[in-house]
Batch of 4 targets.
Target 1
Amino acid sequence: MFKNIVTALQQLRYTLVKHTTKNFVVDCNAIKPGVFRCKTDALSNIVALYTISGNIISIKDLSLIDATYHVKRILDLFSIPGCETITYFSLKPVDIDNYISKINHKLQMKLVELELDKSNTKLRSYVERLIDTRRRVLKGIKPIDISSIIAFICNDSQSYIEILSSIEHSAKNSMNIELKPVTDPMKAVYIANFREGKT
């Protein structure tokens, strides 16, 4: 009786291991910067990862109609038929002393530039924002570091590879959004395996 139970448990373990490894991505290979081919025993997907590295227009500076249109354009840009689009956000506190030190260093550099080019309104505005940020932090407002990854997961086809490889260019031209490719293949493996709804 005991021997039969042990045999049954071993068979169950073998079945579970076989099932989970069949759908488990163990390796993602870079095709182009930020674009990976991720394979399981059963299928192959194209995974593209980008971070937003440039400035995006502030929603508070737009009217309600403008803001709605702006959000729709972003959704249209990041929505690729036949692909899954996921955005991950990470928020964490920063070291205040280090943060202030970096602001002070930037201010010193930019003030020297501004002294040489006093008519540069864009530079003047940037300096004013740095000063305002420094003032707020010194008053006790705690800054946080916000990072994001936009992941696209598509079926393995050349057409999707081309679309995902050109999205960086499209984002810059149509929305003035600067995307930076994420080149770490382990992040692609993690997202491919642990995204919501993955079974």
Target 2
Amino acid sequence: MTDREAMEELHRLLAAALEKADELELIMVGIHINEARNLLAPTTATSH
């Protein structure tokens, strides 16, 4: 493997890692939103 091929492979792997990190971040945001809804649901139901 040449230096150029190694750099291209590294770039590809880093791009894939960043894409996966973005996906995981969106999943975590979704989980936190659901947790917040669950915490607010009983309060909202009893206040009406």
Target 3
Amino acid sequence: LSDENKKAQYDQWGSTDFGTASGGSTSSGHNWQGFHSTIDPEELFRKIFGDIKMGQNNAGFPGWNFDEFAESKFGFGSTQEYVMHLSFQEAAKGVTKTASINTVDVCQKCGGKKTELGYKMVSCPYCNGSGMETFSQGPFIMRQTCRKCSGTGQFNKNPCLECEGTGHTVQRKTVSVPVPAGVEDGQTLRMQVGKKELFITFRVSKSDIFRRDGADVHTDVSISISQAILGGTVRIPGIYEDVYLQIPPATSSHTRLRVAGKGIKKVNSYGYGDHYVHVKIEVPKKLSDAQRAIIMAYAEMETNTPGTIRGVTTTAGGDKICAEDPNGYVAGIRKIFNSSVEENGSEKKDKAEKEKPAS
């Protein structure tokens, strides 16, 4: 312990004797007979090569065992990703759809026994059924997993020709996919199919009616001028059912009205979004003579016109007069209003006279 060099050698190698000893093989002038390692050679081998198993594959053929399943007309493995196309309504309300995918299942020929019909597994002749091989490398004795049976202790002398001795094959199956209500375009759902996981990505087509913003939906509705001025109701298509929307009086174009709770179901929380309706006033392109006369009569009475009105002139006194009235409709409407005003004035005057106290 007083010799620092020997102490370091002892701590590292477990011995300070590196001299020549009988029966030991030498390499580069050193005798390694006194070498003692605490590292398991098998563990060292595994650290170098990882989890790759050297030896026979499940069919009993030697070599590196990379393939898990046999090749089939459907490919080498199960489907891991699937793209499902949905309409807007299917994504909003939820639906159950089917998908044809590749799945790994028990071989239908051998029933998972891995051998041809009428044959069985035999004890591995290379490791005598122990699953381990022992061999020497100079002074070392190494043990590793049997290269023929991969540690199973059994040897497949007559592997199934359908699954190549794996016991499983890739098969095409149709599975039901429950699509939850409210999924969005590009969203991925993880689904358990047997022992494997299937990742389903949804592609949602656009709607001609609805525009989506998370759980909220937006639609446009056209109303008439009379509805915009006087108010009323209008029927609009909804996600789940048609909705009768109340139009308040004096509604301007591009007004946004909210229908609470009539949107799309929220996927990661409770409740539903809202349905927003954008109002557009539809201006008639053709008018009858009577309709035009009514509008012109209204234009004469309008007081907050920002500019001028085509077909209406302003007198020196500031009154508006319809310039063209071939059928006399505007004059008739004006006469009706004027007479109504005169009658109301007379009634008010008579009422005031009656209520006037006697002198």
Target 4
Amino acid sequence: MIPPLTTALPLPVHPSNKGKGTRRPISSTTTSTTSLLQQRSPSSESPSQSQSPSPAGQPTTAAANTTANTKTKTTTARKLASTSPPNFKISARTAQIARHLSSTSSPPDSSTHSSPEHTAMASQYKVRKIGAPNTLEHRIYIEKDGVPVSPFHDIPLYANEQQTILNMVVEIPRWTNGKLEISKNDLLNPIRQDIKKGKLRFVRNCFPHKGYLWNYGAFPQTWEDPNVVHPETKAKGDNDPLDVCEIGELVGYPGQVKQVKVLGVMALLDEEETDWKVIVIDVNDPLASKLNDVEDVERHLPGLLRATNEWFRIYKIPDGKPENQFAFTGECKNKKYATDIVRECAEAWEKLITGKASPGDIATTNLTVKQSPSRVTPDQLPPIPANENLAPAPIDPSVDKWFYISGAAA
């Protein structure tokens, strides 16, 4: 379901206003709502000796794609009208953004394969799902040519030789709440739902947002080094792959490998750690040719960056935590700055995977990185169950609850 939208998008809080009021939940309701990297370029070695790019999960024909998009946009407009509360007026621009963000794509599993002609790399990767979604046992492995690989270490960061197109691994589809992430500690780093105190983690719905605002995921072959303090944020890395917010119109699926281009980056300061959030667009998106830097996002999708800032500021408040802070007073830095951050994190990962930096509890087993002491062959891996594709387990209705945060909306 398309979540209700508002034309009054929240504004970032200027530092001068800090301390003049505390944001807090006031009520809730329920809605049904470089060298190594060059080696890992598309022409480099892989388990199958071929790595040419194309997004997975696309319709098999252009006609099918056009028909599906047309139906989706029509349905979206009807849903938007039918789900709006009384006296709630939606501007034409808001409806346009809703249509832009309404499409969905489906995951290929071990028995399916589709690859439009744009590129072939993404279509090489499929998902192998173990256990039912929304359970503690659920795992999503990424496989290539039937062999499980690590989305952290084996998927190339760059999808072309010019290093202008990057691979992104989708962890969390837009408008969903399950906090899925690449597991740093498990062999081959499958995607799994985060757990706290023995329970699955879900993000809260902070009005007017439903779940995550974007396809949320990570760049492979990147690492935010916890041993390095960034000179501008004055905080160390968060020990994770680099986080990515993909703002295109297709709703992705966990384990999808998208090809994207970088537009900008925000620096969230989360528990005294730098947690970069890179803003990207799927290269196959209809708006991709018009979005080339951060100012283009504001021009063509006005309000999205402000909403992104607001989402990261308040999303932990319903769980009793304080408002998050940003470096650079919440500014989204431009493409050049973001590209430099990506390269820094790629260089940090290179040190990690080649044994020049301590991995701590990070599992570094991989199948493709020549210089890595943790490289193995497929026959050295323990057996991994076949794809199960089980129906999702029921989710507690409380996950759909909406929280109204004081001061969150303009």
